[in-house]
Amino acid sequence: xxxxxxxxxxxxxxxxxxxxxxxxxxxxxxxxxxxxxxxxxxxxxxxxxxxxxxxxxxxxxxxxxxxxxxxxxxxxxxxxxxxxxxxxxxxxxxxxxxxxxxxxxxxxxxxxxxxxxxxxxxxxxxxxxxxxxxxxxxxxxxxxxxxxxxxxxxxxxxxxxxxxxxxxxxxxxxxxxxxxxxxxxxxxxxxxxxxxxxxxxxxxxxxxxxxxxxxxxxxxxxxxxxxxxxxxxxxxxxxxxxxxxxxxxxxxxxxxxxxxxxxxxxxxxxxxxxxxxxxxxxxxxxxxxxxxxxxxxxxxxxxxxxxxxxxxxxxxxxxxxxxxxxxxxxxxxxxxxxxxxxxxxxxxxxxxxxxxxxxxxxxxxxxxxxxxxxxxxxxxxxxxxxxxxxxxxxxxxxxxxxxxxxx
Amino acid sequence: xxxxxxxxxxxxxxxxxxxxxxxxxxxxxxxxxxxxxxxxxxxxxxxxxxxxxxxxxxxxxxxxxxxxxxxxxxxxxxxxxxxxxxxxxxxxxxxxxxxxxxxxxxxxxxxxxxxxxxxxxxxxxxxxxxxxxxxxxxxxxxxxxxxxxxxxxxxxxxxxxxxxxxxxxxxxxxxxxxxxxxxxxxxxxxxxxxxxxxxxxxxxxxxxxxxxxxxxxxxxxxxxx
Lengths: 407, 225
Hints:
The structure holds two protein chains of two kinds. Chain A has helices at about 1-15, 20-60, 80-85, 130-135, 160, 215-220, 240-250, 260-265, 270-305, 305-315, 320-355, 370-395, 400-405; strands spanning about 65, 95-110, 115-125, 140-145, 155-160, 180-185, 190-200, 210-215, 230-235, 255-260, 360, 365.
């Protein structure tokens, strides 16, 4: 206890009475180190989040309900309107929509010379009245307009089908424009012609390489009514977890196949794991750099105070008290630096990023601050600062008393 | 109180430098002794060995019945803290601490209760005539005042022996006299054992019991007052 008390006293006096310039420099460097650790980890964590968000917003939503698989495999979910009404009674469910999925090929006669370019792709039949409450197609339109429920003779094309976009595909239609007509051949051999009402660009998922028609047109083509290939459910994830929602839906409809976006996007899990690994490595390197910086600064500080250390030893203070006083000093610098760094990260950089987000083809990139990651990084920085305070002061405190005092 | 037997100290180097050669003497409790001699005679080196600030090359030192050369580093620190007081020529005060804090730091490290060591430190500073300058930093004190703070610090843990290495060397005549009178008062009122190194023995002679004269690292002679 007396060791801690004396070390704290020496550390406090050294901080209060020491050079304000070097204290500011040290705190400044450590604040920037903290900012570097949290911001870099945040951006790297934000990348997979952006991918996830893009796929969930454009493709899967939170929960996807597929037709019965057992005991009989069915192609469609029957009585979908009643099912959706029932699902929407679950607290936290925000919206639902349905989709039909039709295998097809799309052909385009660009020069009106009877020479069609054909590409295969899926056609989705959606309800224009509610699909945008679950998915976000509308914002991905790069030309034309979205479908209305009565647009049974019109179609939206993904830029991967239409061609002519920033990322031409080898099998695209070579540059379809709004107002052009395309011919769709369905898997049953039926051929229908549609006017292109809009073109959308979605880089991730299957939708970018597909087309969209109204559900009414899909039902007419398939000869079904009030059914669906899948039902998409948008939920409020602050209310319950996606797994809890899925469990509740399964309880309501045990025969249907209910999957969460996590299960559907398991394919991107290795990518996310790779980003997490990169994030850990970058954080570890940043922490190591911060530790080396604090080591150097504390060492310079200790070397500059060799005489003081010599005097403390001469009057009988044990080395442990002296070393502990430097550990306390480095902890103080690291704590203040971390608080300022956190202030910069959350008070300056985050609002700036919110105002000026990084827009990538895969989505909008924001730093994502995971509390556990920040807590671990902070603890590692604290541990690093303790070690970085310990070793240099131990080195200097081992010096001969008379040599130290004579300096 | 102190027994020194065949003490030697040689500084290593290309040409080893023997600074102390076969020093033996004893000091009884309550004695006020000066160690004197020409510059380079080994006075400060001897005091450094006695004050456990350095490690001799040979011989033995016993203080208060303890063979101090067999102590570990930590034990030597504790011994210095508890039983020895040391006053340096250059005062060796800590610049970031006030006079009061400089004085009570060793008591704090010893584990004395806060109110008690503050009271004792104030009392000691008052005794050395600095009762009005408790909260002054060393840079705000004169050389003589700093030296008196150093004396108060050396006394805070009631040491068995007080070592002073040329404590008046950097002081004017008047300040030097004040410091020496302080040592004499201490010895007379508390029976404090004092070993003082000086190259101007005449100043201290009126106050001391004995002087040890060194020459070329050896004891040249003892002089009784």
